[in-house]
Amino acid sequence: MSTKTTFKRVALVAVAALGFGLLSVVPSSAAISGDTMSLSSATTTITLGSSATNVLTQSFIGANSDTLVVMTTVKTNVTGNAAVPFLGTGNSGTGGYTSLVAPTSPTTVNIQATLTDTVTVGTSGTVSGTYNVSFKPTVAGTYVIRFAAYNGTAANQLAGTVSGFIVADPILWTVVVDAAPVVATTVGDSTSTSILNAASVATGSSDATITVAAGSAITAVATIVVTPKTSGVVSTGSTSISATITGPGTLTASGSSTAAGSGNLKSVSFDLNAAGAAYVHVYGDGTTGSSTVTVKVGGVTVGTETVIFSGAAASAVATVVKPVLTSGSGAAAFDAVTAIVKDAAGNVVAGKTVYAVSGTTTVFASTSAVTTSAGKATFSLTGLAAGTSTVTVQDVAAGSTATWSAAAVSVRAGTDIGASVVMSLDKATYSQGEAAVVTVTVKDAAGNLVADGTYAPFSAAATSTRVISGGSLPGTSHVTTGSANGTVTYAINVPTTSGAFTISATAGSGWTGTFSATATVSQSAAEIANADAIAAAADAAAEATDAANAATDAANAAAEAADAATAAAQDAADAVATLGTQVAELVAGLKAQIAAQKAAITALTNLVIKIQKKLKA
Fold first, then answer.
1. Range among 204-208, 210-214, 230-234, 513-517 rated most confident
2. I need a labelling partner for 519 at 20 to 30 A (CA). Which of 69, 105, 111, 460 fits?
């Protein structure tokens, strides 16, 4: 505000005082009634890198061309900070408000930052303005921003050429800037790998199946190798790795493949500051169940691993994988029965010795096996003599009382000498070119499936009456392995055209059985449609012939009717002619009769006249 303006303002105050019978002298340094400033918030707390915002509201009583300047100063700064407060958008004013002066950079060391705004009024009255102030420091710490209103122009205030006086009480804004959290620079992405290994292995190329007995947290039971990668290439920068276990167990994470003792933690993290791998070690905590370890690289999930902590074995399910064994002298041992062993909670049990007890030890002997990490026990049996025996999987050897046992299964010890064969197809009807299965089944002299071996039931390879569209037909040699037990299958594709076909072979020396199989290839849709079209055309032709015959019959009937009409007409004409002649003859006779009658009448008349004359005479 200029000196002239100051006098105007003092005069206005004096007039007001006189109106109340009082006259007061207002010091030039005191705030004048009606000049106010306020902030929407006295303190603002932000995180480094964010902007603190506030709303400054200014109001004053102005006379003609009155100007009020708000000076904004960083009263308390933080070493190293170079930011200044500035006016944001959306500012407004009333009662002659015109504009705001743009932010101004610091001019002295003491005035760290100054921004100005100017409100000018053209006539007397109250003027107000609302200013959005923003401040984004570059250093963490506590700042104090001072707002004070002065008379005069902004330029004079900045230059210090006009001392002016404060026309509103200064107000302070405290800005607290907290340091931003430190986050590891992450260069790994979703192509990073997570591989589950046994505790003593850290070089696996794929996830292992880990099932261990629930125990203490002293020794690690598994190691997860985490390799950060970027676009599939091993990362070389700093990468944050984290893991969380859900279920039993605890974790540690480090840059070493050698596990230290458990820290009893459910979630762990590790910052890998070089190329290579980090290691997450898994420990038991004494409880049973299935646990899932979720592994993240830089916050991105790259793998979920499963570790099973099992309790004591409580049940098993046995499965026959080789139902027929060879027997007798020289018979080989075969993995014939497997069993999955579980605890009471249904978790598989690893490292447990279980027993396969033979019901007939003369057929094969009892044996034992140790479960794998998947809880699977595999029992090898040797046929001693031909016959069938039950196998019971249980927790103790034969002769002891079992705590639990699986349902018994049966295995037969037989022979590998074949006597008969049956060749068959898997269907009776196929679509054109459809895949089919030819099965050759070999049995021994007793009619039982033979044990696995090599057989030659055909003297030559099988043939087909029509060309097959794919695959190979049975040859002379048939090898059965695993659980096939004398059964060999051959995949073919049937002919691509419709009709019956037969696959057959010639029996080898000493073999009996069925050496052929017949099936039918159905018509294709096109063939069916073509046949339907031919049938429809034939039906149409037959209908056309019937229609032509009917038309001919109708024409013949019409001709015959015409002939009959012509004959009738002729008969009518002849009858008419005859009738005419008869009529003419009758007319002539009638005329003659009339003439005769006339003559008779004339003669009679004449006679009468003569008689009269005679009488008169």
1. 513-517
2. 460
Q: Report helix, strand or coil for 258.
A: coil
Of 121-135, 335-349, 516-530, where does mean pLDDT reach its minimum? 121-135
Core vs surface per residue 162-177: b (16+ CB within 10 A) or e? bebbbbbeebebbbeb
- Could you give the 3-state DSSP secondary structure of residue 600? helix
Q: Are strands 229-230 and 233-234 parallel, antiparallel or unpaired?
A: antiparallel
Residues 327 and 289 in one domain: no
- Of 135, 152, 178, the position where a domain reaches its end is 178
Instruction: Give yes or no for a contact between 100 and 119, defined as CB atoms under 8 angstroms apart.
Output: no
20 and 106 housed in the same domain = yes
Measured in degrees and rounded to the nearest 5, phi and psi for residue 600 equal -65, -40
* Whether the predicted pLDDT of 474 surpasses 90: yes
150 three-state secondary structure? strand
200 and 171 belong to one structural domain: no
Domain final residue, candidates 379, 399, 414: 414
* 138 domain-assigned: yes
Calpha distance 129→140 (Å, rounded): 31
- CB atoms < 10 A from the CB of 314, how many? 17
pLDDT digits (tens, 9 = 90+) for 132-180: 888 888 888 899 888 877 765 544 554 444 455 555 578 899 999 987 6
Does 129 map to a domain? Answer: yes
User: What is the DSSP annotation of 283-326?
Assistant: E--S--EEEEEEEEETTEEEEEEEEEEE-SEEEEEEEES--EEE
Q: Are residues 327 and 304 in the same domain?
A: no
Angle subtended at Cα 519 by Cα 515 and Cα 520, rounded to the nearest 5 degrees: 155
What is the structure's pLDDT at 579?
A: 82
Q: How many CA atoms lie within 13 A of 56 on its CB side?
A: 29
Whether 425 and 373 map to the same domain: the answer is no
Contacts of residue 297, Cβ cutoff 8 Å, sequence gap at least 6: 186, 188, 189, 192, 226, 228, 239, 240, 241
410 shares a domain with 269: no
Cα–Cα dist 215/283, whole Å: 9
155 and 35, same structural domain? yes
489 in a domain, yes or no?
A: yes
Q: Can you give the residue range of the structural domain that contains 236?
A: 193-310
The per-residue pLDDT for 153 is: 54
Pair 10, 73 in one domain:
yes
Q: Are 426 and 412 in contact (CB under 8 A)?
A: no
Distances (CA, A) of 158 to 16, 105, 161, 588: 33, 10, 8, 166
Lowest mean pLDDT, pick from 13-17, 70-74, 142-146, 459-463 = 13-17
CATH code for the domain in which residue 7 is found: 2.60.40.3880
In the chain, the amino acid numbered 326 is T
| Whole-number Å distance between alpha carbons of 241 and 250 | 16
**Phi, psi values for residue 200, rounded to 5°:** -90, 5
Distances (CA, A) of 552 to 78, 136, 262, 548: 122, 110, 109, 6
Domain count, the chain: 4
Tallying the residues shown for the chain, one arrives at 617
Q: For 84-183, where are the alpha helices, taking DSSP H only?
A: 154-159
